[in-house]
Queue: 2 jobs
Job 1
Amino acid sequence: MAVKKTDLAVSIGDWKLKNPIMTASGTFGYGEEFADYLDVDSLGAIVVKGISLLPRTGNPPPRVVETSCGMLNAIGLENVGLERFISEKIPIFEKYKTGVVANILGDSIDDYCRLAERLSDTSITAIEVNISCPNVKKGGVAFGTDPKMAYDITRAVRKKCSKPLIIKLTPNVTDITAIALAAEEGGADAVSLINTLLGMAIDIKSRRPKLANVVGGLSGPAIKPIALRMVWQVCNKVTIPVIGIGGISRVEDVLEFLLAGATAVQIGTANLVDPNVAGELVVKLTAYLQENKIENIGQLIGSLEV
Ligand SMILES: Cc1cc2nc3c(=O)[nH]c(=O)nc-3n(C[C@H](O)[C@H](O)[C@H](O)COP(=O)(O)O)c2cc1C
């Protein structure tokens, strides 16, 4: 008997993704670095390295440290800046037959608005707003740690952004659902979570921090249970799609996030271990649906029984 075709397509607002597997910002370069290892077009979408108005050199080394079941990074959002992004990187993206999401970062609401406005005039598919950055004007408190600030930035960017708008949440808060609700109220089409958890590591011989920046962001399998818990909590509160991120490397991880209610997932640190992991996850997810006779991925999303 012929196997029925499985439908892996998911939607974020009006944007239809052929499958829910995306890459996470900062772990997949601009896609071209991975093109020898996997078919970028097989992915639901790629999220490229965070971009600011002006180029940033990032933090001094050492900027990356391995930890138990994960890693710490303090790259400091190094990037080529908006103008080079538009002139050098967007022409590369135009060759892809999958969605390309620009991840933006800034020090003020005005920075974010200018980025969103310029990028709305390009062929970029969607915009993801990294609100883990410190609001320099408000004394360095991250936009994503205060519901009022999260609402204000989402609302302001929404007005300038004609593309699907994703707000990326930080887990370094007491109640992530309050921030997610603020982003929804501000007009976001989706929220993505989680960004890295703040951590540190010490070299006991030199008695110095292992990172020059002292603290850094923890990612990888170590954070998966926290990410999954936060995604589940947020899915129970908001009505917009939720994109799950955090320690995903196996098809079982993808399934856990989908069951918890995530519409799509992003693969981060796992790309640094196996550059083909995201491509393999598409294949394995398709096989899982076929083997279990699930015709439509929507049947899995949010089907957790508590
Ligand atoms: C080296 C590195 C660089 C990152 N750069 C960014 C970035 O520029 N913007 C952003 O929103 N998140 C950035 N992240 C966070 C990831 O996109 C992701 O949210 C986080 O690592 C958790 O997912 P994972 O455990 O699958 O890596 C970065 C993570 C790593 C490890």
Job 2
Amino acid sequence: MPFDFDRVIDQHNTHSLKWDAMESRLGLDHPDMLPMWVADMDFAAPPAVAEMLHLMADRSVFGYFGDDRDYKRAVCDWMAKRHQYEVDPDWITTSHGVVAGVGSALHSFTQPGDGIVVFSPVYHAFGSTIRAAGRSLIESPLKLVQGRYEMDLEGLATQIDAKTKIIILCSPHNPGGRVWSRQELIDLCKFCETHDLLLIADEIHHDLVFDGHQHWVTANAYPDIADRLITLTAASKTFNLAASMTGNVMISNAQLRETFMTTVKGMGASSPNRIGIEMVTAAYAHGEDWLEALLPYLQANANRFDEAMARIIPGVRSMKLEATYLAWCDFSETAYCIDEAVARVQDVARIAINKGPVFGEGGQTWLRFNLACPRSTLDEAIRRLETAFQD
Ligand SMILES: Cc1ncc(COP(=O)(O)O)c(C=O)c1O
């Protein structure tokens, strides 16, 4: 294999959130904890990223960033090639990561007390950002239909009022890995039109989609949504570059874009991180082969994990991933209450996971396992789970 995803890279004591913050964040202090929580991968990024960083290090002059044309070209080329979405470079504002883009959008387009909708369970930083901004969180619980999530727009219609201003969509969805169909996206966009809502589409997981599923860029699924749409992307999930802290906020409507940029300037946050920009430009320009090799590796990990879980823990339901590397497992039909399951996974198997309630309504009986690790690490996790649940 040209890219060695089997290579185990020691990340202890590297200031990694995933590897070095299990004790401070989760209270898990066993020296051989396996981290399967934070959505980082344990793989080396595409080689072009390290080459770019070596070039920068050799030069060793780290001045301000001043010309974003190559960066924006790389983003637009990627979106056109991988997602058939023609983005005008002028639509793009970079943000200090996607969550910062969400926060800036909330401050741009809503007032304290306004209602913001999320489809829960969902990526937890949406809720924490909404609450910290003094906006009101409206959780629209996803329906479980034949083991996969569906939005409940009828139910949502009864939850919103005149103060509801924005829906945040996670597409593909985290957790659960749903790839929304074109029809589902059209229905959601029409809902936004009917109720005069803006739509923030966080599409950060758009490249991590498995065979047999197609990610629709929201703007392509329903082009009429353009004037009420804010699309967020990043290379961080695709290429394992969370440290780049660089996200893309794409807004085609000029008035919305100007409002957004005024907010960003008002926060003094309009100057991008040059190192992050260089990393991402290199990855988009030269990382496609790496991604193509990664996807089957992740799919194989997901299959291996699901088979093992079904064998080890009777009744556990691992949602069939259509995208992402984040296994989402329901313990409600097992012999274990969720606290018991967490204790066995974290204290006995010594595996750090994300607990479902963090993701909001509907997550109570679930645990999230990050499977983006070398096969040998996954097998070690499976062995530990076998022991922890052997009775
Ligand atoms: C849906 C979603 N959005 C955003 C992020 C984080 O993005 P960033 O690190 O660019 O703020 C994550 C990370 O897991 C995520 O799953």
